[in-house]
Protein 1
Amino acid sequence: MFKNYFKIIWRNMIRQKQFAFLNIVGLTLGITTCFIIGLYVYDEATYDTFHEKGDRIYRVNQPDIWGDWNNQYASSGPNLAVALRADAPEFEQVTRILDMGAKTVRKHTDGEENIIFKEEQYFAAEENFFEIFSFDFLQGDPKTALKDPTSIVITQETAERYFGDENPMQKPLQVRQTDGSWKTFTITGVLANVPTKSHLQFNILASLNSLAGKMKADGWLWVWTGFSTYGLVKEGVDITALTQKIQAIPPKWAAATAERIFNQSYEEFTAGNPWKLYLEPLADIYLSNSPGFHFFGPNGNPLYVKLFSAIGVLILVLCSINFMNLSTARSSKRAKEVGIRKVLGSERKRLITQFILESTLFVLVSTLLALLLTQLFLNGFNTIAEKELSLIAMFADPVFLVIILSFIVFLGVLAGSYPAFYLSGFRPIETLKGKLGAGFKGKRMRNGLVVFQFTISIALIICAFFVQKQLAFTSSMDLGLIKNNVLQIHNIEQLGTNDQVLKNKLESNAAFTHVGKSYGVPPNVWSGDRYKAFESENPAMNLSDFRTEGDYLEVLGVEFLAGRNFDPERKNDKYGVILNEEAVKILGWGPKETYASNSPIGKYVEMTNENEDKLEVLGVVKDFNFNSVKEKITPLVILHQHNDLVWNYGRGRTFLSARLNPEAVKNTRDIQILIDDIKEEMTQMDASILFEYSFMDQEFENTFRAEERMATVLNIFTLLALIIACLGLFGLAAFSAEQRIKELGIRKVLGAKASELALLFSSEFTKLILISVLLASSIAYFLVDEWLTNFAYRTSIDIWVFTLAALSAFVITILTVCFQTIRVAMANPVESLRTE
Amino acid sequence: MLLQLNNISKWVHSGGQKVFLLKDINFWVHEGDFITIMGPSGSGKSTLLNVIGMLDDFNEGAYTFLEEPVHQLKEKHRANLYKQYIGFVFQAYHLIDELTVRENLEMPLLYKKQSASERKALVADTLDRFNIVGKKDLFPAQLSGGQQQLVGVARALIASPKLILADEPTGNLNSKQGEEIMEIFKELNSQGVTIIQVTHSEKNAAYGSRIIKLLDGRIE
């Protein structure tokens, strides 16, 4: 029996090559997409699974005490760990790590050239760090590796960078301190490279004990939120109860900070907001997206994971629909076979089995091809999506094989069920008489499915369009500063007093129009402090700030609305501030229209430190985007670089920014020469300083990396969905041509012109596409509108995009069916009308 | 003279050999003729009818229709010619299943770009003339074979052709229905419409004024 089934399936495939080809190509593309998306989603969803005690590890989050207290904040103060150890015995271990910022590290041997790198992923960790997290030690003892204050643990890749083939154990590495001195650490452990699927990404872990002095002095500070705190709970602990219990910690422990630092009571500081502590399971961290200020590694985006999963499922549905459509479409051809089988005594059940077997075979062949294609395309996809997905590795997992097998059966049954029930339901006498109106019976269903396919494809096209439009919009919008042609030189703080020498050199260079120094540069201004208007009842607020001198504002080209820039001649300017419009507004001094009558110039901004120091407002600048344009412009206080009243959060990162003179610098070669010169200059001043530079416009672009990446991936999937839908449409057109050739022949005999026939034939499909366009437009409008709420500055949802998508859909439809259209329009009616 | 065929030949290549479908056909038709083409299966009857109807090409010879040299005409011109002067009736009726009787009748007029009011009047006339007013909103599948063929004939006539080409018009009908159709042909012929029919039936052939017998693509 089965042999017979296979024989018939095989012969059907051979005889109807076009049908088989369309089916297999469609299914293969769909399944490939599905596999790639599946691997992507699996990869995103299985971060941090390599830790042995992973199911008991929690990160302790707190509110964003620097902004909206309703938002979770992944960073906490140093004392949280101490408090948890003291007050919550449910924790077996509590550990904290501190982001040290970028550090310059060198291997220094007398008489040899230094090997020097800037280490961006350099953290300080407590000695029990490895008792919670399972990172593989290649050398060293996890228990003691971070005990000694001068101990340092590095990854294998890092070790190779400094030591090549040498054994790095117990060798010294020197780390540059903020004062310019070099501190020597000893390597006490070498780790296997940190797995990519870890939310903690580091190259170097220094012992937190190395900061013993600072910890002793500032360890009580709950506002030093540079730490992440992790706890390993004991077996069987009730997390809800534990969460409940630890809520008592902040009021008890943090009150002292509010009083000593801000001269406020705990209630005043929190302004009535609960200082909640959250226990976030390790497995949730990577994809949770919401806690801001996770410094220690990558964050996934749950939106994209959901979006891509949805696209994967949709594409699978699309290619199943293709299969159903093509199968029922050619049912008139199969009807006779069904009729004969039924007359010869086949039960309906057997027929269903046969058709489902057939579809499962198609799926099997396509799946095998899809596995090959996936392997083939995966590298390309990895490059685009910045992933390290691997298909081969999956085969080692028996679960994966079971999944693939069940996938084949599931899809086979899914795609085969409708045709199976449809075809097996034919009445034998009718089919044998050839009287079957088969084409028309299932026609409405098939049309519905095509409309569904194209609705999805067109909606994807529209969405992809708007994603591009939004990206183009943000990269071309007016930022309030001139981001182009600004060269930023990093690590200026390490030059010490030489920075002025370098600055003078740049200023005298005709290639630059302006040169300025600043602590922090747009779009990365992360520092801030608490400010209030002097003699105001309003409470203090967190405002962003950065430090600069007057000439940096000239480099940026920001516009002054009132007052003046910092003046290097006036000594007192160092206690002056320049505000942006938002800051003036939030301090209660009104919008720019009121400056004439009620000028903010000469008023004072008060700090919340012990002395309640006052800073005079010297000027107001027009709002400009000092962070990614994903966010609205927030209040900004521009401090003078020498202001010693405000604590310098700048982490010692100073930049020299220079605006290129387009007259003098005409091409990339000129720029390269210029950069090489500056590097030479800096090396002569101090060879130990790493020379790094960037361009401001590129930095702004980089803030949209994730979106750019998503856009590319979305474009690819859109294209695939479209191809699959077109394959289906092509098959359907071929079938329809077959069905209608007689009717069209009659029309031709009765005097229809070829052009009239072509129009008539293709209108059948363009009508469907019109419906799809209408449906897709509304769906896409909804989705785009939703997506755009993620952005502070949104591109407009223009009607022309929908029109363009509709037009392209029509063009694609007409092109897809044109082969059949031409065939039916040119056909000789004598052929089709011959009566046998 | 309505049309004239001189030395018409048509062939296909099969296995490297020329197989003649029509060979040296010489044939003429006057207006008002009622001609029957007879012959065994495969003798080329339908092919001849298609050539006359300008639906099919031929390889050799000359065909003159109303003084126009059909073999020299461009496709478009030829289409206009048959659209205007020729009506077709088929054995299998070839009505369009998705269109009602009225819409089927209207179709040839649509392709002749007649105005809506003209079409309406002509369709109403024709329905009346063939006594099928009551069936105008039915679909072909709801009619008997005889009724369907009646619609087929009505459709062929609606644009007032000079020539009707009928390929076994009664082949799918029972004898009573067949007779009715033949009576209609006879009456049309008496009104001056030229008819060329292909048939196997001696009885039907008797309605015509001239019989042409074909054998293996030649006129006997």
Protein 2
Amino acid sequence: MNAEIRTMRTQAELALLDAFANHKDRLVGARDERVAAFKKFEEAGLPHRRVEEWKYTDLRALMRDAKPLAAKPDAAAIAAAREAGRIAGVDARRIVLVNGTFVPELADTAALERGLTITSLAEALVAPGNALAGLGRTVQTNDVVVALNTAFMADGVVIRVAKDAAIERPIHIVHVFSGREAAATFTRSLVVVEPGAKLTLIESHEGAPDVDYQVNTALELVVGDGARVEHVKLGLEGSKALHLSSTMAAVGADAVLRDFAFMTGGAVCRNQLFIRLDGASTQLVVSGANLLKGRQHVDTTMLVDHAAGGCQGREKFKSVVDEQSRVVFQGKIIVRPGAQKTDARMATHALLLSEEAEADNKPELEIFADDVQCGHGATAGALDEELLFYLKARGIPAKEAEALLIQSFVGDAIENVAHEGLREALVAATAQWLQARS
Amino acid sequence: MPAVQETVEKVRRIDVDQYKYGFETAIESEKAPKGLNEDVIRFISAKKGEPAWMLEWRLEAYRRWLTMREPHWARAEYAPIDYQDIYYYAAPKQFKAPKSLDEVDPEILRTYEKLGIPLREQEILAGVARSDGSGGARVAVDAVFDSVSVATTFKEELKKAGVIFMPISEALREHPDLVRQYIGSVVPITDNFFATLNSAVFSDGSFVYVPPGVRCPMELSTYFRINERKTGQFERTLIIADKGSYVSYLEGCTAPMRDEHQLHAAVVELIALDDAEIKYSTVQNWYPGDSEGRGGVYNFVTKRGDCRGKNSKISWTQVETGSAITWKYPSCILRGDNSRGEFYSIAISNGYQQVDSGTKMLHLGRNTTSRIISKGIAAGHSQNTYRGLVSAHRKATGARNFTNCDSLLIGDQCGAHTIPYIEAKNASAVFEHEATTSKISEDTLFYCMQRGLSEEEAVALVVNGFVKDVLQQLPMEFAVEAQKLISISLEGSVG
């Protein structure tokens, strides 16, 4: 059990080593950072179940191979992605990344509001000056998936919102994979919201249903003092996709950050959140809804680091797991020494709809300050028979009664989305998922 | 609550970081050569007059141990342990199994007297006032001093009921088949680094067998005492409750104050067959080290219960106040249908203590239920971690778990951590988990102090209320002791 085991490199690891050796000279910019990050991967390999943070998502086993790096999209791929990601009832400024590449003709950058700048990462990487100052330093982590993203990052979106600029129209970064051949994309976005500014950021991921493409995407989010940011992520990947996503957010004082993730797509998904609260009196709301079926595996791993006191953290996750799917939630709240008056609550609930479904929860608290109120709750279970009976007794068919209860179960998390149009779109998406189920 | 008042007075009488069990007994002892090798294991086995298969078993464990690495996943930091700098066997000199208490070295008897452990039959544990003068519950005690059991009381009376209660070394001679059938069946020799080490070198411990349908007529108790310098204690306890039987077992432990660290790596195995019930209570009060974090016992213990039969029940109750480092996860394997596991824990850390403790509830059978109540209190510079696993196997339909783990922080230099793992692989499983961490509210303290309590009294009152759920699970004799212990452990942490 505790015996020393030397592991062989897997096929995927070998392919990644090859890819870096062959492409490192063609990957533009941030050369030192790329080399340093790749070294981390070389030393640690892909994360496996003996790595505590990856205990339930053994990437070594789940990632059988590493696909070749995606090529620039051709005209057909771009044309196919033209309408991608539109959300009914939400008027957003769409910026579409096709196969991991920022496509200027699909980026709605006309008539930008005052104080808003949008560029592509590829452009920023080669631009003179310090357009990317701070990239990779928002929240430091030793995570290997983040390191791989840094090593291979090809493109992404760089958004800056100047001090006190209130951007009312949401910005929507659409990631589309429209290739017919499996490939790997590495996208990295940097969003800096300066003090007092306001932004609603939507991030969506979709792709071909029958291609086993691989996505490694990262978002760095800097929220200045007094800024208000809402980040909503829609994970609608194709059913064979591997989706690895890391969000790193550093939040200042008196700010508000709301983060929501809605996951229904992909074969294997890992949603990592690394959030650090650097200033006092900030309000953080992190929540999500996972709707899984088939053999889907979705892992949400969240680290909330209360480095400053007096902040309020609210984390709520709801998961519905059907058929042979598996949901994983690992949440860790750290309250640093001196972060007094922290008020943190984390709740995670899983609804198991099938005998073969699985829910693994690990809500952690790590507390080094005494004057705090912290708590977590976790439940896992089936639909309440009594509630079902109540509804059925009133003439509602079983399937419908189930759907109603599930809808309300998930709705509890969706309520945390502040943007009304988005909230309605998520409720509709839930209903659609339920319809497809019955 | 009159007991609270009593507690507070007790606290007053004792100075800060005064460990009242820290004395040393001057007694000559016989030791195995320092260090660990196959000869030392042969020496221990020969000393105990064990059957050949037992020696083989030990050697197999030892060889396995050599290939293992010490685990470091627990939230505890300590200097590397030199396993060759420990005596693995120490026994009072000229020790041969005494026929009666009169043959036991009076020094040892005085030691136990000082610790408040009665070895004279009919006596009762200290701290329980009996106003009506009646005898109340009697307790049979097995006293383990370093590596050997020095006395076991009430043997005759237990024998009448058919209950076997004796040192495991004696059981190996008198009931080898019974021991062979069950030892290692819950904690196999390959289980983990410390359990494997224990399997190789365990010296003594208690053996309990309760025959079918018997309700053990009294509480059974083992009192462990480390006395020698540089000695590790590796006891092994094996309790078997046969069909339809019931037994309640208590365990207590102390050690002298030393500026070196001592290793305690015990293994406890419980087996409950159909309809049987085992209640296991521990008051762990090993020397925690001084106020600077020097010395103290490393308590690396593997405790596991196997609800092997239908409708069986195992309940663990622990009050952890001692040890420099505690690494302990009393667990239940809920194999039998309708079986039940319970874990009630109070873990208190002060000074530089590090506690990483919790439980595992493995639901394998149908309609199995479990309940976890854990109360952690951290003060001083200590770190207090709850780590627990609740899992339901695919076939464990109708599994139910309720977990509540609360932490209380006293002072801003300590840490309290909660690391639960909840794995549901069955749709009909219902798992509920809740945890909170907070400090004693100013309002509550103010309320108490306004009514004339001093701050220390107020804290004691709140803490006693905080841990009440667990204290209620302890047998009465232990509950009173435990309550005092809690106040003493927290003393000096206010203000």
